[in-house]
Amino acid sequence: MNPSLTDTPTLSRRGLLHLSLGASAFLATVGLGATLTGCSTSQPASGLAALRDSDLPFLRAVIAVMLDGAVTAEKLDAATEITLQSLDRGLAHLSPSMLKLTRQLFDVLTLGITRGPLTGIWGAWENASAEDIQVFLARWENSSLSLLRQGHGSLLQMVMMAWYSCPQSWAHCGYPGPPVV
């Protein structure tokens, strides 16, 4: 007789810790492997201080989805580029260890071997639909793995801070700007 799903034991706290530890080790290994094999260069893209060429397609796709509703469709491309520039300025001021962690997150999201299984985006980011990216973001936000939830939170905070620090975003939310001193 086969046991039903209700008869099988659920994931224990110890099992969850082992799973989280394994996932952390996997992501760290992939990030390190990408760096060592040259898949991920530390050199910033032309005209940028911290963001690399490999980061840009991913960030452009995700930023456009995250800014949906905060900007009109006609201004979305310009808002995405403004946000990229602002994000780059912010990343350039991070400590070396924080920048390294951020780049590891970007590496995991841009390398094909990890992008597909972890995000559900199996092709290039440029070809992903807005719906696919929304599903990826929701998947990470609601994941049972704290590492993925932390990645989602970090990504969301970086993008939103970059966008809302720009004067172009202020009119949409009714902020008149800082007082003149």
UniProtKB/TrEMBL annotation:
It comes from Pseudomonas agronomica. This is Twin-arginine translocation pathway signal protein.
